[in-house]
Amino acid sequence: MKSYIIFSSREPFLIVTRETIRDKEVVEHLRRIGCSKFISREVPIEHLRRQYGRRFEVTEKALRDSSHLRVLDYSGERVFQNLPFSEFGGAYRCESAAAPA
Question: How many Å apart are CA 40 and CA 7, to the nearest integer?
């Protein structure tokens, strides 16, 4: 299991996935929710487990039951409060085709 902070034209948000951010299903899922151009950085699962507690457990269970990706937190403000920059892994950039209108 992997987790990433996603920086796009919207607020930063956190995802949890069974795949890596480079996996085509993950990129396609992000594209479908309107995030076709982004920069991501991996964040440690254990840190999120401690910070988000029960919310993380529910997200993790939902991820095991279905889908390639689950959003853990849509609040950019909360994401920045909960994650020190020192916890961020290397950056990955993606620019895929925009979702159909």
Answer: 6
**pLDDT tens digits, 36-91:** 899 999 999 999 999 999 999 999 888 887 777 899 999 989 998 888 888 888 89
- Pairing mode of beta strands 13-17, 37-42: unpaired
Number of H helices, E strands in the chain: 4, 5
Distances (CA, A) of 57 to 13, 18, 28, 50: 17, 14, 24, 10
Interatomic CA distance for residues 29 and 33, integer angstroms: 7
Neighbours of 54 (CB within 10 A): 7
User: Dihedrals φ, ψ of 24, to 5°?
Assistant: -65, -35
Task: Give the helix ranges, DSSP H, for the chain.
Answer: 24-32, 45-52, 54-65, 76-82
